């Protein structure tokens, strides 16, 4: 539209200026060395105006060409970006669907977009690992680090996760140790460290980082409590395997008081004391434990205590009947302690009460002993047989003699 107006104004100007120029008198000379070229003034002025118009048209043409070139370049640039973006999207879809090779190829191609290069290379590293290509994985992670040096923690976390997935625990530990130096309070670094130590059964290091886990709120209170108890329990079991009571006792006393009061720790320590035949320590432990929580397994261990005064131990245990009058484990324990105190009738009564609630092989066994001491061998044999029958429970009951007869 502008060009049409320019042409119209130029035509009108020529019609007006032309006659005026033609009336200009005189001549104009151009000297070239010793040669003089003469132009009439009206012709010279007309040529000057024509030259200006031509220069103006050339300028318009150059501007148009430059603008067209930029549009062309932008079109090709936008096309490449669109293609790279689509490759990234398709690559992420392939990764989610488990098409690892396709995902790796598309994500590597799509890494042309500056804003998504890091994501592309990290995802490509995961795709490479899923194909068992650890070298390819490390290659993409190396490129990601060079592409975005300020994302060392993100890249390192991805590397540690992938190494742990491939059970490359030594490499993962080195990676996480480096990340911990870079960011000592990073919650996810600490979480991965805990997971790695747990897989390595390195519970002492779990105990060492517990304050960091708590301070940085890596886990909620319930989870942290469970981790703490599990870690101390594993370490306690490790010390129990040394079969050295002094070392075990010293370690037990070094455990935080609130952890020692947990059922898991008390039971683990109780089993260790029973194995080491530390009956006096076990008796104290069980009596203290019952005051704040009840554990059938500890009560069962209490019945195996070899005490010099079984009648007093029995009398103390009988006070628990107020708390648990119908507990089969407690009644069996009282029957065992009665046998140790040579109170055969009392043992028989407690064991029969226990069997009435839950028939167990151990209760039948101790009841048979009570019958023997009371002079009832036939009833003792019946108790032994009942205990054996209770121990061996076939998936289906059948008449063995009848089956054999039918086969004949």
UniProtKB/TrEMBL annotation:
Keywords: Cell inner membrane, Cell membrane, Membrane, Porphyrin biosynthesis, Transmembrane, Transmembrane helix. This is Heme biosynthesis protein HemY. The chain crosses the membrane at residues 46-66. Pfam families: HemY_N. Its main location: membrane. It is found in: Cell inner membrane. It comes from Kangiella aquimarina. Residues 29-132 form the HemY N-terminal domain. The keyword Transmembrane applies. InterPro entries: Heme_biosyn_assoc_TPR_pro, HemY_N, TPR-like_helical_dom_sf. The keyword Signal does not apply.
